[in-house]
Every structure is written in C-alpha cells, then in structure tokens.
Specification:
Elements: E1 2-6, E2 15-19, E3 29-39, H1 41-45, E4 62-70, E5 81-84, E6 87-89, E7 104-107, E8 119-123, E9 127-129, H2 136-140, H3 143-156, E10 164-167, H4 173-184, E11 188-193, H5 196-203, E12 209-212, H6 218-226, E13 230-235, H7 242-247, E14 249-257, H8 270-276, E15 279-282, H9 288-300, E16 307-312, H10 316-325, E17 331-335
Parallel strand pairs: 10-11, 10-13, 11-12, 13-14, 14-15, 16-17
Antiparallel strand pairs: 1-2, 3-4, 3-8, 3-17, 4-5, 5-9, 6-7
Helix pairs in contact: 3-4, 3-9
C-alpha cells in the first residue's frame, strides 16, 4: 500500500511516499481504507527525536474512510463509512475503572502505524460510524482535536452553561473545535486571534467576542468586553501567554491545560493561586467514553469542524510545513486518494 513515511527525525522533508507491505489483519482488529486524514501538532512531534520508537514510521492520528475487513465482532458492517478514535486503550478486561487516566496507552500514529496511508489497522473498539451530516473532509477533521477539546471542556474544565470561557489559539484546529463545542455546551466564548484575517474567520464561529492577543493587554480586553474576568481559560499555548491567562481569570476560576506549544516553562507566584482559589487542571486527549459523548454532541448538534485547507497525500510534507508555519484557520486535511 502507498503510505507517507517519516524516515528519520528532521523537518518536513524527511517524509517520503513509499510502497509499504501490508500484512494480514490481526484478531480483534479492523482494517479501514483511509479516504481522508488530517494533520495535528502530534504528527509534527513524530519527526522529533525520542518520540516514536523506530523509523521508518507512518504518522497520522485522524482518519475517516471505509471499513473493509474485521477480525472479530462489531455492530458496524463492512462497507460502512467510519471515523477512528485515536486513543488506544488497554483491553476492556485490563482497564482500571477506578483510575481511568492510566488506561490510555498510546496515540494512533505514535508507536504504531497511523492514518497517512491507504489502509490503517486499529482495534475494533476504535471505529465509529461517521456522522452522516458531515463531508468526508469534515469527518477526518474531528477525531483528535474534538476529542481533546471535549475532555478539556466537559470533563476536566467542567464548563457550565452561561460561564465565560477564554479560548487561546482560537484559529487553530484545537481552538476552533473548542469554540464549536463550548458554544454547544452553552458557554459564552471569548476566542483569541492574532490578525485581522484570523479574527474575521473566527468570528464566523459565533463566539461572544474576539480577543486580539497581538494588540496586548489581553485581560483589559476581556474586562472591557464582558465587564469582568472569565470563569475558565482553555489553554494549549502557555509560554508567554501564561501571565495574561492568570490576569484574565476571576477568583475561583479554572485553567485547563492540554499543551505548551509556545513554551513549557513559566514563572508565577503560587500565592496568587491560593489567594484567588484558582484551580489548574492538566488534560490529555480523551478516552472511549469521551469519544462517544463527543460524537453524540456533534451528531445531535449538527456541529461542523472547520476545514482550512486540503492537501493531497503526495504533498504531505507541504501540509506539515503549513502546520508549522500557522496562518491556516481550522484543520489541515489530507486526501489519501491523491
């Protein structure tokens, strides 16, 4: 089968299209013919030393396509259009239900072959019917970002209807997912943008307001807009934005953090945390229950992901470069048939 393969650590140029042998399907697995995949920050990390176990490696966590083979029981019939849950969990009999955070053992496309190929083999429990109201590109844009955003908002951030939520990275794949889901959950969204173009695009998702972080004084913009500070900050950026996060947060507020794309190390006064009774919640991607609940919300709410640009698989290096450069609002989708 044809696949995009990371041959060694490095820049986007280390991704090559190759013919890769395809072995027999293992018991308990499903084989999906991948029609569309999409690019996440996690895909870029597979080109960093020490992330994946060996090279050459097929990246890709998101995928939508046709179920072509099963080695086990499933309520989904072959020939059906499916989306893939990228969270690889322990088998049901080995899970620790009292400690679910230990049950997610890997991300699809990290230490196993991912979706940037003609076919991808995944555990049967990781396939779900694709939402019927979405295009194939929109379905491929869902899995990792919507799963992570759902867990951040619904389970870790515990957002409540009517609360104000500041969403950093509002124009990115995770940020646009968070805006759509937070609106569905009844929150009042303030989304960040770093340019006139991004602000215009993000406004189409109908947040209550746009915060222009490039203009500075983020906390002042928040207060000028809503008359007070926010209840919850949704952050996957950190780094230099951290002080603005805390300055924008009301006493008793929460920060939910699922990434540090702008920097891992920050400095702050711990006394501010106990004095203001703030809560800081770390978060990774969600589990099977989160994926089910997220898909239910997408289906019942007729929610649609934002697809920023579609690249053919033959231009996967360019898609990675575009992800690194930024500037594309929404998800970068890959057509695996081209």
């Amino acid at each position: 089968m044809r696949a995009a393969v990371v041959v060694r650590p490095g820049g986007p140029e280390v991704i090559e299209l190759r013919d890769v042998p395809q072995g027999p399907l293992a018991p308990g697995m499903a084989r999906v013919q991948i029609e569309r995949s999409s690019v996440n920050a996690a895909d870029l990390w597979t080109r960093h030393p020490g992330i994946v176990s060996s090279y050459p490696h097929i990246p890709g966590s998101d995928g939508c396509g046709v179920l072509v083979e099963l080695r086990g029981e499933s309520t989904i019939e072959t020939g059906s259009k499916v989306v893939i849950n990228p969270a690889l969990q322990l088998p049901t009999g080995e899970r620790s239900w009292s400690d679910p955070y230990r049950d997610i053992v890997d991300i699809l496309g990290y230490n196993c072959a991912g979706t940037c190929a003609e076919y991808c083999d995944v555990p049967i429990g990781n396939i779900f019917p694709a939402p019927s109201h979405l295009t194939i590109e929109e379905s491929a844009a869902i899995p990792l970002t919507y799963l992570t955003a759902w867990r951040m908002l619904a389970r870790r951030g515990m957002v409540e209807r009517g609360e104000y939520v500041l969403i950093w990275g509002g124009s990115g794949g995770l940020g646009t997912a968070a805006i759509v889901l937070a609106n569905y959950l009844g929150a009042n969204v303030l989304a960040t943008a770093g340019s006139d173009h991004d602000a215009e695009q993000v406004a189409g998702l109908k947040p209550k307001g746009i915060i222009r972080y490039d203009l500075g004084e983020v906390a002042k913009q928040v207060i000028d807009l809503i008359g007070r500070k926010v209840d919850l900050v949704f952050d996957s950026v950190a780094g230099p934005t951290w002080s603005a996060t805390l300055q924008s947060l009301r006493p008793g507020g929460r920060v939910v953090l699922a990434g540090t794309t702008a920097g891992d190390v920050v400095t702050f006064d711990l006394s501010d945390f106990f004095y203001n009774q703030w809560a800081l919640c770390g978060c990774r991607m969600g589990d099977e229950r989160d994926f089910e609940n997220m898909l239910k919300a997408v289906t019942e709410g007729h929610l649609k992901p934002v697809v920023g640009k579609v690249y053919p698989l033959s231009q996967i290096s360019e898609a990675h470069q575009a992800m690194e450069d930024g500037g594309i609002v929404g998800k970068i989708v890959v057509n695996n048939f081209e």
